[in-house]
Amino acid sequence: MNQTDRKDAINPFGKLNFLVVDDFENFRLSMRQMLRSCGADKIELVAHATPAIQYCTYNHVDVVLCDYNLGEGKNGQHILEELRHKKLLSRSSLFLMVTAETSKEMVMGAREYQPDAYLTKPLNRAMLEKRLGALVQQRSALLPITREMDRENYPEAISQCLQLLPKQPRYKTWLMKTLGELYFIVGDLSHALKVYDEVLAQRELSWARLGRCKVLLGNRNFDDSVEGLKALIAKHPDYMEAYDLLAEGLEKQGKAVQAQQILEKAAEHSPNALLRQKHLALLAGTNQDIDTASQAWRQTVTLGTYSIHDNSDHYLSLAQSLSDLSEGHPEAEGAEHAAEALNVLSKMEKRFADDDSIGLKSRIVQCRVHAGQGNQKSAEKLLGDLRAELETLEDIPADLGLDYAKTLFRLGRDEEAKSLLSDLAARYGDNPETLQKIENLLDEPVGFRQKIEARGYNRDGIKAFESGDLDGAVEAFNRALAIVPDHAALNLNLIQVLLRKYDQAPDDHSLLTTCQECLRRLEGLPEQHRQHRRYSALARKLKGLTA
Protein backbone atom coordinates (compact mmCIF):
# COMPACT_ATOMS: atom_id res chain seq x y z
CA MET A 1 0.00 0.00 0.00
CA ASN A 2 1.54 3.36 -1.05
CA GLN A 3 1.32 6.60 0.92
CA THR A 4 -1.73 7.87 -1.04
CA ASP A 5 -3.63 4.62 -0.47
CA ARG A 6 -2.81 4.77 3.26
CA LYS A 7 -4.07 8.34 3.40
CA ASP A 8 -7.31 7.37 1.62
CA ALA A 9 -7.82 4.44 4.01
CA ILE A 10 -7.35 6.69 7.02
CA ASN A 11 -9.56 9.46 5.58
CA PRO A 12 -11.99 7.91 3.02
CA PHE A 13 -13.95 11.20 2.78
CA GLY A 14 -10.97 13.36 1.84
CA LYS A 15 -11.03 12.98 -1.95
CA LEU A 16 -14.83 12.89 -2.36
CA ASN A 17 -17.02 15.70 -3.69
CA PHE A 18 -20.06 16.33 -1.47
CA LEU A 19 -23.28 18.19 -2.27
CA VAL A 20 -25.64 19.16 0.57
CA VAL A 21 -29.18 20.22 -0.41
CA ASP A 22 -31.39 21.72 2.29
CA ASP A 23 -33.57 24.83 2.42
CA PHE A 24 -32.53 25.65 6.01
CA GLU A 25 -29.20 27.46 6.15
CA ASN A 26 -28.46 26.37 9.73
CA PHE A 27 -28.78 22.72 8.76
CA ARG A 28 -26.55 23.18 5.70
CA LEU A 29 -23.87 24.81 7.82
CA SER A 30 -24.21 22.15 10.51
CA MET A 31 -23.91 19.40 7.90
CA ARG A 32 -20.79 21.01 6.44
CA GLN A 33 -19.22 21.16 9.89
CA MET A 34 -19.97 17.49 10.57
CA LEU A 35 -18.59 16.43 7.18
CA ARG A 36 -15.41 18.44 7.75
CA SER A 37 -14.94 16.83 11.15
CA CYS A 38 -15.21 13.45 9.36
CA GLY A 39 -12.41 14.48 6.99
CA ALA A 40 -14.37 15.85 4.02
CA ASP A 41 -12.89 18.82 2.20
CA LYS A 42 -14.87 19.48 -1.02
CA ILE A 43 -18.39 20.40 0.12
CA GLU A 44 -20.95 22.41 -1.89
CA LEU A 45 -24.07 23.79 -0.16
CA VAL A 46 -27.30 24.67 -2.02
CA ALA A 47 -30.79 25.50 -0.81
CA HIS A 48 -33.06 24.26 -3.58
CA ALA A 49 -33.48 21.84 -6.47
CA THR A 50 -32.55 24.05 -9.42
CA PRO A 51 -29.03 24.92 -8.22
CA ALA A 52 -28.56 21.30 -7.07
CA ILE A 53 -29.35 19.87 -10.51
CA GLN A 54 -27.33 22.61 -12.20
CA TYR A 55 -24.31 21.82 -10.00
CA CYS A 56 -24.54 18.09 -10.83
CA THR A 57 -24.78 18.96 -14.54
CA TYR A 58 -21.37 20.62 -14.57
CA ASN A 59 -19.57 18.86 -11.70
CA HIS A 60 -18.86 15.28 -10.69
CA VAL A 61 -20.51 14.58 -7.33
CA ASP A 62 -19.60 11.54 -5.24
CA VAL A 63 -22.11 12.01 -2.40
CA VAL A 64 -25.43 13.91 -2.36
CA LEU A 65 -27.06 14.55 1.02
CA CYS A 66 -30.52 15.87 0.18
CA ASP A 67 -33.46 16.89 2.34
CA TYR A 68 -36.87 15.65 1.20
CA ASN A 69 -38.84 18.84 1.91
CA LEU A 70 -37.29 21.85 0.18
CA GLY A 71 -40.17 24.32 0.38
CA GLU A 72 -42.02 25.44 -2.76
CA GLY A 73 -41.06 23.58 -5.93
CA LYS A 74 -39.22 20.32 -6.42
CA ASN A 75 -38.61 18.06 -3.42
CA GLY A 76 -35.84 15.56 -2.79
CA GLN A 77 -37.68 12.85 -4.71
CA HIS A 78 -37.89 15.11 -7.78
CA ILE A 79 -34.16 15.81 -7.57
CA LEU A 80 -33.28 12.12 -7.34
CA GLU A 81 -35.70 11.32 -10.18
CA GLU A 82 -34.17 13.97 -12.45
CA LEU A 83 -30.56 13.10 -11.63
CA ARG A 84 -31.26 9.43 -12.41
CA HIS A 85 -33.20 10.25 -15.60
CA LYS A 86 -30.52 12.58 -16.95
CA LYS A 87 -27.73 10.24 -15.78
CA LEU A 88 -26.07 13.09 -13.89
CA LEU A 89 -24.97 10.70 -11.15
CA SER A 90 -22.48 7.94 -11.87
CA ARG A 91 -23.12 4.39 -10.66
CA SER A 92 -20.57 4.95 -7.90
CA SER A 93 -22.23 8.17 -6.66
CA LEU A 94 -24.19 7.98 -3.42
CA PHE A 95 -27.55 9.70 -2.86
CA LEU A 96 -28.74 9.90 0.74
CA MET A 97 -32.19 11.25 1.58
CA VAL A 98 -31.97 13.27 4.79
CA THR A 99 -35.39 14.03 6.23
CA ALA A 100 -37.61 14.39 9.25
CA GLU A 101 -40.52 13.25 7.03
CA THR A 102 -41.49 9.64 7.75
CA SER A 103 -44.90 9.27 6.07
CA LYS A 104 -45.45 6.11 4.05
CA GLU A 105 -46.26 8.11 0.92
CA MET A 106 -42.92 9.92 1.11
CA VAL A 107 -40.86 6.81 1.81
CA MET A 108 -42.61 4.75 -0.88
CA GLY A 109 -42.38 7.54 -3.44
CA ALA A 110 -38.70 8.25 -2.83
CA ARG A 111 -37.85 4.54 -2.72
CA GLU A 112 -39.07 4.19 -6.32
CA TYR A 113 -35.85 5.88 -7.43
CA GLN A 114 -33.61 3.89 -5.05
CA PRO A 115 -31.68 6.29 -2.82
CA ASP A 116 -28.67 4.60 -1.24
CA ALA A 117 -29.90 5.34 2.28
CA TYR A 118 -32.23 7.39 4.48
CA LEU A 119 -30.86 9.51 7.30
CA THR A 120 -33.43 10.71 9.82
CA LYS A 121 -33.25 14.18 11.33
CA PRO A 122 -32.02 15.21 13.85
CA LEU A 123 -28.61 13.97 12.75
CA ASN A 124 -25.39 13.80 14.76
CA ARG A 125 -21.77 13.34 13.72
CA ALA A 126 -21.43 9.78 15.00
CA MET A 127 -24.50 8.58 13.12
CA LEU A 128 -23.41 10.36 9.92
CA GLU A 129 -19.87 8.96 10.05
CA LYS A 130 -21.08 5.41 10.74
CA ARG A 131 -23.72 5.27 7.98
CA LEU A 132 -21.82 7.24 5.40
CA GLY A 133 -18.50 5.55 6.19
CA ALA A 134 -19.94 2.09 5.47
CA LEU A 135 -21.39 3.27 2.15
CA VAL A 136 -18.16 4.97 1.10
CA GLN A 137 -16.19 1.83 1.94
CA GLN A 138 -18.55 -0.28 -0.19
CA ARG A 139 -18.37 2.32 -2.99
CA SER A 140 -14.58 2.08 -3.03
CA ALA A 141 -14.55 -1.73 -3.07
CA LEU A 142 -17.04 -1.95 -5.96
CA LEU A 143 -15.63 0.91 -8.03
CA PRO A 144 -14.09 -1.37 -10.74
CA ILE A 145 -17.60 -2.68 -11.50
CA THR A 146 -19.56 0.59 -11.35
CA ARG A 147 -16.94 2.30 -13.53
CA GLU A 148 -17.44 -0.27 -16.30
CA MET A 149 -21.23 -0.05 -15.94
CA ASP A 150 -21.04 3.73 -16.46
CA ARG A 151 -19.06 3.04 -19.64
CA GLU A 152 -21.76 0.48 -20.63
CA ASN A 153 -18.98 -2.08 -20.92
CA TYR A 154 -21.20 -4.78 -19.46
CA PRO A 155 -19.06 -7.84 -20.35
CA GLU A 156 -16.13 -6.32 -18.46
CA ALA A 157 -18.44 -5.42 -15.55
CA ILE A 158 -19.53 -9.09 -15.45
CA SER A 159 -15.89 -10.15 -15.42
CA GLN A 160 -15.14 -7.75 -12.55
CA CYS A 161 -18.11 -9.12 -10.57
CA LEU A 162 -16.86 -12.68 -10.96
CA GLN A 163 -13.34 -11.65 -9.88
CA LEU A 164 -14.56 -9.78 -6.80
CA LEU A 165 -16.97 -12.47 -5.52
CA PRO A 166 -14.26 -14.58 -3.80
CA LYS A 167 -12.31 -11.49 -2.71
CA GLN A 168 -15.19 -9.48 -1.21
CA PRO A 169 -17.51 -11.94 0.58
CA ARG A 170 -19.06 -9.12 2.68
CA TYR A 171 -20.53 -7.65 -0.53
CA LYS A 172 -21.72 -10.96 -1.97
CA THR A 173 -25.39 -9.91 -1.97
CA TRP A 174 -24.68 -6.74 -3.97
CA LEU A 175 -22.39 -8.62 -6.34
CA MET A 176 -24.88 -11.42 -7.04
CA LYS A 177 -27.74 -8.98 -7.54
CA THR A 178 -25.66 -6.88 -9.92
CA LEU A 179 -24.37 -9.96 -11.74
CA GLY A 180 -27.93 -11.16 -12.39
CA GLU A 181 -28.91 -7.73 -13.69
CA LEU A 182 -25.85 -7.54 -15.95
CA TYR A 183 -26.49 -10.97 -17.47
CA PHE A 184 -30.09 -9.87 -18.16
CA ILE A 185 -28.91 -6.62 -19.80
CA VAL A 186 -26.59 -8.48 -22.21
CA GLY A 187 -29.37 -11.01 -22.99
CA ASP A 188 -27.71 -14.00 -21.31
CA LEU A 189 -30.91 -15.19 -19.64
CA SER A 190 -29.62 -18.70 -18.83
CA HIS A 191 -26.73 -17.32 -16.74
CA ALA A 192 -29.04 -14.74 -15.13
CA LEU A 193 -31.43 -17.54 -14.11
CA LYS A 194 -28.51 -19.55 -12.75
CA VAL A 195 -27.44 -16.60 -10.54
CA TYR A 196 -30.95 -16.13 -9.11
CA ASP A 197 -31.45 -19.87 -8.55
CA GLU A 198 -28.11 -20.07 -6.73
CA VAL A 199 -29.14 -17.24 -4.39
CA LEU A 200 -32.61 -18.70 -3.78
CA ALA A 201 -31.16 -22.13 -3.02
CA GLN A 202 -29.38 -20.57 -0.04
CA ARG A 203 -31.93 -18.00 1.07
CA GLU A 204 -35.33 -16.66 0.01
CA LEU A 205 -34.55 -13.05 -1.03
CA SER A 206 -37.23 -10.92 -2.65
CA TRP A 207 -34.88 -9.30 -5.20
CA ALA A 208 -33.70 -12.74 -6.37
CA ARG A 209 -37.29 -13.96 -6.69
CA LEU A 210 -38.15 -10.82 -8.69
CA GLY A 211 -35.09 -11.32 -10.91
CA ARG A 212 -36.05 -14.93 -11.56
CA CYS A 213 -39.59 -13.91 -12.56
CA LYS A 214 -38.16 -11.22 -14.84
CA VAL A 215 -36.02 -13.84 -16.60
CA LEU A 216 -39.03 -16.15 -16.96
CA LEU A 217 -40.96 -13.28 -18.51
CA GLY A 218 -38.04 -12.62 -20.87
CA ASN A 219 -38.16 -16.31 -21.87
CA ARG A 220 -41.92 -15.93 -22.56
CA ASN A 221 -42.73 -18.30 -19.70
CA PHE A 222 -45.62 -16.04 -18.75
CA ASP A 223 -47.60 -18.42 -16.53
CA ASP A 224 -44.74 -19.31 -14.17
CA SER A 225 -43.61 -15.68 -14.03
CA VAL A 226 -47.09 -14.42 -13.16
CA GLU A 227 -47.63 -17.07 -10.48
CA GLY A 228 -44.22 -16.33 -8.96
CA LEU A 229 -44.92 -12.60 -8.84
CA LYS A 230 -48.32 -13.12 -7.24
CA ALA A 231 -46.66 -15.19 -4.50
CA LEU A 232 -43.95 -12.54 -4.07
CA ILE A 233 -46.52 -9.75 -3.63
CA ALA A 234 -48.47 -11.87 -1.13
CA LYS A 235 -45.31 -12.06 1.03
CA HIS A 236 -44.13 -8.48 0.35
CA PRO A 237 -47.17 -6.27 -0.37
CA ASP A 238 -45.00 -3.11 -0.50
CA TYR A 239 -42.64 -4.42 -3.19
CA MET A 240 -43.59 -2.02 -5.99
CA GLU A 241 -41.31 -3.45 -8.68
CA ALA A 242 -43.15 -6.77 -8.36
CA TYR A 243 -46.50 -5.07 -9.11
CA ASP A 244 -45.08 -3.41 -12.23
CA LEU A 245 -43.60 -6.66 -13.50
CA LEU A 246 -46.80 -8.58 -12.72
CA ALA A 247 -48.86 -6.04 -14.68
CA GLU A 248 -46.47 -6.49 -17.60
CA GLY A 249 -46.82 -10.26 -17.40
CA LEU A 250 -50.63 -10.11 -17.28
CA GLU A 251 -50.67 -7.80 -20.30
CA LYS A 252 -48.54 -10.28 -22.22
CA GLN A 253 -51.07 -12.97 -21.28
CA GLY A 254 -53.78 -10.75 -22.78
CA LYS A 255 -55.32 -10.04 -19.36
CA ALA A 256 -55.50 -6.25 -19.53
CA VAL A 257 -58.27 -5.93 -16.94
CA GLN A 258 -56.31 -7.93 -14.35
CA ALA A 259 -53.18 -5.91 -15.16
CA GLN A 260 -55.15 -2.72 -14.47
CA GLN A 261 -56.34 -4.09 -11.12
CA ILE A 262 -52.73 -4.84 -10.10
CA LEU A 263 -51.62 -1.31 -10.95
CA GLU A 264 -54.57 0.10 -9.00
CA LYS A 265 -53.37 -1.82 -5.92
CA ALA A 266 -49.83 -0.57 -6.50
CA ALA A 267 -51.08 3.02 -6.75
CA GLU A 268 -52.84 2.61 -3.40
CA HIS A 269 -49.54 1.61 -1.77
CA SER A 270 -47.39 4.19 -3.56
CA PRO A 271 -49.53 6.99 -5.09
CA ASN A 272 -46.64 9.33 -5.99
CA ALA A 273 -45.05 7.33 -8.83
CA LEU A 274 -45.85 9.29 -11.98
CA LEU A 275 -44.86 6.65 -14.54
CA ARG A 276 -47.00 4.00 -12.84
CA GLN A 277 -49.99 6.35 -12.77
CA LYS A 278 -49.46 6.95 -16.49
CA HIS A 279 -49.31 3.19 -17.18
CA LEU A 280 -52.52 2.75 -15.18
CA ALA A 281 -54.21 5.53 -17.16
CA LEU A 282 -53.24 3.96 -20.50
CA LEU A 283 -54.41 0.49 -19.40
CA ALA A 284 -57.72 1.80 -18.07
CA GLY A 285 -58.28 3.64 -21.35
CA THR A 286 -57.65 0.43 -23.28
CA ASN A 287 -60.17 -1.30 -21.01
CA GLN A 288 -62.73 1.48 -21.63
CA ASP A 289 -62.70 2.29 -17.91
CA ILE A 290 -62.72 6.02 -18.54
CA ASP A 291 -63.48 6.97 -14.93
CA THR A 292 -60.31 5.24 -13.71
CA ALA A 293 -58.34 6.53 -16.71
CA SER A 294 -59.40 10.12 -15.93
CA GLN A 295 -58.44 9.79 -12.28
CA ALA A 296 -55.05 8.30 -13.16
CA TRP A 297 -54.37 11.01 -15.77
CA ARG A 298 -55.41 13.62 -13.21
CA GLN A 299 -52.87 12.20 -10.76
CA THR A 300 -50.23 12.00 -13.51
CA VAL A 301 -50.72 15.69 -14.33
CA THR A 302 -50.54 16.67 -10.66
CA LEU A 303 -47.37 14.64 -10.05
CA GLY A 304 -45.83 16.12 -13.18
CA THR A 305 -45.91 19.68 -11.83
CA TYR A 306 -42.29 19.49 -10.66
CA SER A 307 -41.23 16.26 -12.38
CA ILE A 308 -38.74 15.76 -15.20
CA HIS A 309 -41.40 13.48 -16.73
CA ASP A 310 -43.95 16.29 -17.13
CA ASN A 311 -45.45 16.17 -20.63
CA SER A 312 -48.15 17.97 -22.60
CA ASP A 313 -49.54 14.57 -23.67
CA HIS A 314 -50.59 13.96 -20.06
CA TYR A 315 -52.77 17.09 -20.08
CA LEU A 316 -54.14 16.24 -23.52
CA SER A 317 -55.00 12.68 -22.50
CA LEU A 318 -56.76 13.94 -19.35
CA ALA A 319 -58.79 16.41 -21.40
CA GLN A 320 -59.68 13.69 -23.95
CA SER A 321 -60.90 11.31 -21.25
CA LEU A 322 -62.93 14.08 -19.59
CA SER A 323 -64.42 14.90 -22.99
CA ASP A 324 -65.49 11.25 -23.33
CA LEU A 325 -67.12 11.37 -19.90
CA SER A 326 -68.97 14.60 -20.68
CA GLU A 327 -70.21 13.62 -24.13
CA GLY A 328 -73.98 13.46 -24.38
CA HIS A 329 -74.40 14.33 -20.69
CA PRO A 330 -75.37 18.01 -20.44
CA GLU A 331 -76.61 17.53 -16.87
CA ALA A 332 -74.53 18.63 -13.86
CA GLU A 333 -71.92 15.83 -13.83
CA GLY A 334 -71.32 15.98 -17.57
CA ALA A 335 -71.07 19.76 -17.49
CA GLU A 336 -68.48 19.52 -14.69
CA HIS A 337 -66.36 17.13 -16.74
CA ALA A 338 -66.63 19.43 -19.77
CA ALA A 339 -65.60 22.47 -17.72
CA GLU A 340 -62.67 20.58 -16.24
CA ALA A 341 -61.56 19.45 -19.71
CA LEU A 342 -61.54 23.04 -20.99
CA ASN A 343 -59.65 24.18 -17.89
CA VAL A 344 -57.02 21.45 -18.34
CA LEU A 345 -56.56 22.47 -21.99
CA SER A 346 -56.12 26.10 -20.98
CA LYS A 347 -53.44 25.14 -18.44
CA MET A 348 -51.73 22.98 -21.07
CA GLU A 349 -51.55 25.87 -23.54
CA LYS A 350 -49.96 28.14 -20.92
CA ARG A 351 -47.55 25.54 -19.54
CA PHE A 352 -46.30 24.37 -22.94
CA ALA A 353 -46.59 27.66 -24.83
CA ASP A 354 -43.29 27.01 -26.63
CA ASP A 355 -44.80 24.03 -28.47
CA ASP A 356 -46.28 25.32 -31.76
CA SER A 357 -48.67 22.35 -32.09
CA ILE A 358 -50.26 22.73 -28.64
CA GLY A 359 -52.93 25.25 -29.66
CA LEU A 360 -54.10 23.07 -32.55
CA LYS A 361 -54.26 19.93 -30.40
CA SER A 362 -56.17 21.87 -27.76
CA ARG A 363 -58.78 23.26 -30.17
CA ILE A 364 -59.50 19.81 -31.64
CA VAL A 365 -60.51 18.56 -28.18
CA GLN A 366 -62.31 21.82 -27.31
CA CYS A 367 -64.43 21.41 -30.42
CA ARG A 368 -65.38 17.88 -29.35
CA VAL A 369 -66.19 19.02 -25.80
CA HIS A 370 -68.58 21.70 -27.06
CA ALA A 371 -70.22 19.27 -29.51
CA GLY A 372 -70.65 16.68 -26.77
CA GLN A 373 -72.40 19.25 -24.59
CA GLY A 374 -74.72 20.35 -27.41
CA ASN A 375 -72.99 23.72 -27.93
CA GLN A 376 -73.19 23.33 -31.68
CA LYS A 377 -72.51 26.98 -32.53
CA SER A 378 -69.22 27.05 -30.58
CA ALA A 379 -68.22 23.66 -32.02
CA GLU A 380 -68.90 24.74 -35.62
CA LYS A 381 -66.89 27.94 -35.19
CA LEU A 382 -63.93 26.00 -33.82
CA LEU A 383 -64.25 23.45 -36.63
CA GLY A 384 -64.01 26.22 -39.23
CA ASP A 385 -60.83 27.54 -37.63
CA LEU A 386 -59.40 24.01 -37.43
CA ARG A 387 -60.01 23.29 -41.11
CA ALA A 388 -58.20 26.46 -42.13
CA GLU A 389 -55.26 25.64 -39.88
CA LEU A 390 -54.99 21.99 -40.89
CA GLU A 391 -54.99 22.90 -44.58
CA THR A 392 -51.63 24.63 -44.02
CA LEU A 393 -50.05 21.34 -42.89
CA GLU A 394 -48.32 19.23 -45.51
CA ASP A 395 -48.97 15.94 -43.72
CA ILE A 396 -51.15 15.56 -40.63
CA PRO A 397 -49.34 13.46 -37.99
CA ALA A 398 -51.11 10.21 -37.09
CA ASP A 399 -52.17 11.09 -33.53
CA LEU A 400 -53.38 14.54 -34.56
CA GLY A 401 -55.28 13.10 -37.52
CA LEU A 402 -56.94 10.43 -35.40
CA ASP A 403 -58.08 12.95 -32.82
CA TYR A 404 -59.38 15.29 -35.54
CA ALA A 405 -61.28 12.40 -37.17
CA LYS A 406 -62.86 11.63 -33.80
CA THR A 407 -64.03 15.25 -33.59
CA LEU A 408 -65.40 15.13 -37.16
CA PHE A 409 -67.46 12.07 -36.27
CA ARG A 410 -68.84 13.88 -33.22
CA LEU A 411 -70.00 16.74 -35.42
CA GLY A 412 -71.65 14.41 -37.93
CA ARG A 413 -68.97 14.87 -40.62
CA ASP A 414 -68.74 11.12 -41.14
CA GLU A 415 -67.63 11.11 -44.78
CA GLU A 416 -64.93 13.70 -44.09
CA ALA A 417 -63.72 11.64 -41.12
CA LYS A 418 -63.65 8.41 -43.15
CA SER A 419 -61.73 10.10 -45.97
CA LEU A 420 -59.13 11.37 -43.50
CA LEU A 421 -58.79 7.92 -41.90
CA SER A 422 -58.42 6.32 -45.32
CA ASP A 423 -55.55 8.70 -46.14
CA LEU A 424 -53.93 7.94 -42.77
CA ALA A 425 -54.28 4.18 -43.37
CA ALA A 426 -52.49 4.53 -46.72
CA ARG A 427 -49.68 6.61 -45.18
CA TYR A 428 -49.23 4.47 -42.08
CA GLY A 429 -49.84 1.05 -43.64
CA ASP A 430 -46.61 -0.29 -42.16
CA ASN A 431 -47.47 0.82 -38.60
CA PRO A 432 -49.66 -1.86 -36.93
CA GLU A 433 -50.39 0.28 -33.84
CA THR A 434 -51.66 3.23 -35.90
CA LEU A 435 -53.67 0.94 -38.18
CA GLN A 436 -55.32 -0.61 -35.12
CA LYS A 437 -56.35 2.84 -33.88
CA ILE A 438 -57.74 3.72 -37.32
CA GLU A 439 -59.76 0.51 -37.43
CA ASN A 440 -61.14 1.07 -33.94
CA LEU A 441 -62.28 4.57 -34.84
CA LEU A 442 -63.79 3.50 -38.17
CA ASP A 443 -65.68 0.68 -36.45
CA GLU A 444 -66.82 2.62 -33.37
CA PRO A 445 -66.91 6.39 -33.98
CA VAL A 446 -69.14 6.90 -30.94
CA GLY A 447 -68.76 7.75 -27.26
CA PHE A 448 -67.31 5.17 -24.88
CA ARG A 449 -70.68 4.44 -23.23
CA GLN A 450 -72.17 3.52 -26.61
CA LYS A 451 -69.09 1.41 -27.40
CA ILE A 452 -69.56 -0.59 -24.22
CA GLU A 453 -73.27 -1.09 -24.96
CA ALA A 454 -72.57 -2.21 -28.54
CA ARG A 455 -69.85 -4.60 -27.40
CA GLY A 456 -72.27 -6.14 -24.92
CA TYR A 457 -74.79 -6.82 -27.69
CA ASN A 458 -72.02 -8.25 -29.86
CA ARG A 459 -71.03 -10.70 -27.11
CA ASP A 460 -74.67 -11.69 -26.71
CA GLY A 461 -74.93 -12.27 -30.46
CA ILE A 462 -71.84 -14.47 -30.58
CA LYS A 463 -73.07 -16.55 -27.63
CA ALA A 464 -76.50 -17.00 -29.24
CA PHE A 465 -74.92 -18.01 -32.58
CA GLU A 466 -72.63 -20.55 -30.91
CA SER A 467 -75.60 -22.09 -29.07
CA GLY A 468 -77.61 -22.36 -32.30
CA ASP A 469 -80.09 -19.56 -31.45
CA LEU A 470 -79.91 -17.81 -34.84
CA ASP A 471 -82.91 -15.53 -34.22
CA GLY A 472 -81.41 -14.38 -30.91
CA ALA A 473 -78.08 -13.73 -32.66
CA VAL A 474 -79.76 -11.63 -35.39
CA GLU A 475 -81.59 -9.56 -32.77
CA ALA A 476 -78.43 -8.93 -30.74
CA PHE A 477 -76.31 -7.98 -33.75
CA ASN A 478 -79.03 -5.64 -35.05
CA ARG A 479 -79.15 -3.89 -31.66
CA ALA A 480 -75.39 -3.40 -31.77
CA LEU A 481 -75.55 -2.10 -35.37
CA ALA A 482 -78.20 0.43 -34.36
CA ILE A 483 -75.43 2.03 -32.26
CA VAL A 484 -72.46 1.51 -34.64
CA PRO A 485 -73.96 0.85 -38.10
CA ASP A 486 -70.61 0.83 -39.94
CA HIS A 487 -68.81 -1.58 -37.60
CA ALA A 488 -67.06 -4.05 -39.93
CA ALA A 489 -66.99 -7.10 -37.66
CA LEU A 490 -70.60 -6.63 -36.56
CA ASN A 491 -71.90 -6.35 -40.13
CA LEU A 492 -69.94 -9.44 -41.14
CA ASN A 493 -71.16 -11.31 -38.04
CA LEU A 494 -74.75 -10.54 -39.02
CA ILE A 495 -74.13 -11.66 -42.62
CA GLN A 496 -72.76 -15.00 -41.40
CA VAL A 497 -75.84 -15.59 -39.23
CA LEU A 498 -78.20 -14.64 -42.06
CA LEU A 499 -76.40 -16.97 -44.49
CA ARG A 500 -76.74 -19.78 -41.95
CA LYS A 501 -80.50 -19.03 -41.77
CA TYR A 502 -80.61 -18.98 -45.60
CA ASP A 503 -79.10 -22.49 -45.64
CA GLN A 504 -82.13 -23.58 -43.58
CA ALA A 505 -84.67 -21.51 -45.56
CA PRO A 506 -83.39 -21.09 -49.17
CA ASP A 507 -86.68 -19.59 -50.33
CA ASP A 508 -86.36 -16.56 -48.03
CA HIS A 509 -84.55 -14.11 -50.36
CA SER A 510 -85.07 -11.23 -47.94
CA LEU A 511 -82.16 -12.69 -45.96
CA LEU A 512 -79.84 -12.15 -48.94
CA THR A 513 -81.19 -8.62 -49.43
CA THR A 514 -80.28 -7.77 -45.83
CA CYS A 515 -76.83 -9.27 -46.39
CA GLN A 516 -76.33 -7.02 -49.41
CA GLU A 517 -77.32 -3.97 -47.33
CA CYS A 518 -74.67 -4.90 -44.75
CA LEU A 519 -72.03 -5.24 -47.46
CA ARG A 520 -72.93 -1.83 -48.93
CA ARG A 521 -72.13 -0.24 -45.56
CA LEU A 522 -68.59 -1.61 -45.86
CA GLU A 523 -67.86 -0.63 -49.47
CA GLY A 524 -65.22 1.89 -48.38
CA LEU A 525 -63.43 -0.54 -46.05
CA PRO A 526 -59.65 0.06 -46.45
CA GLU A 527 -57.63 -2.89 -47.73
CA GLN A 528 -55.42 -2.58 -44.65
CA HIS A 529 -58.40 -3.32 -42.35
CA ARG A 530 -58.03 -6.69 -40.62
CA GLN A 531 -61.65 -7.55 -41.61
CA HIS A 532 -61.07 -6.83 -45.34
CA ARG A 533 -60.21 -10.43 -46.26
CA ARG A 534 -63.32 -11.70 -44.49
CA TYR A 535 -65.39 -8.98 -46.19
CA SER A 536 -64.07 -10.04 -49.64
CA ALA A 537 -64.77 -13.72 -48.98
CA LEU A 538 -68.37 -13.09 -47.86
CA ALA A 539 -68.93 -10.69 -50.80
CA ARG A 540 -67.86 -13.45 -53.25
CA LYS A 541 -70.09 -15.99 -51.53
CA LEU A 542 -73.09 -13.65 -51.62
CA LYS A 543 -72.45 -12.83 -55.27
CA GLY A 544 -72.56 -16.56 -56.08
CA LEU A 545 -75.86 -16.97 -54.22
CA THR A 546 -77.53 -14.01 -55.95
CA ALA A 547 -76.18 -14.64 -59.48
From TrEMBL:
Start and end of every Response regulatory domain? 17-136
The superkingdom of the source organism is Bacteria
In the record for this protein, the TPR repeats are positioned at 454-487
Q: What is this protein called?
A: Chemotaxis regulator-transmits chemoreceptor signals to flagelllar motor components CheY
Q: Does the keyword Nuclease apply?
A: no
What is the scientific name of the source organism?
Answer: Marinobacter excellens LAMA 842
Is RNA-binding among this UniProt entry's keywords?
A: no
Q: Which GO terms describe its biological process?
A: phosphorelay signal transduction system
Question: Keywords of this protein's UniProt record, alphabetized?
Answer: Phosphoprotein, Receptor, TPR repeat
Listed transmembrane segments? none
One Pfam family of this chain: Response_reg
Residues that bear 4-aspartylphosphate: 67
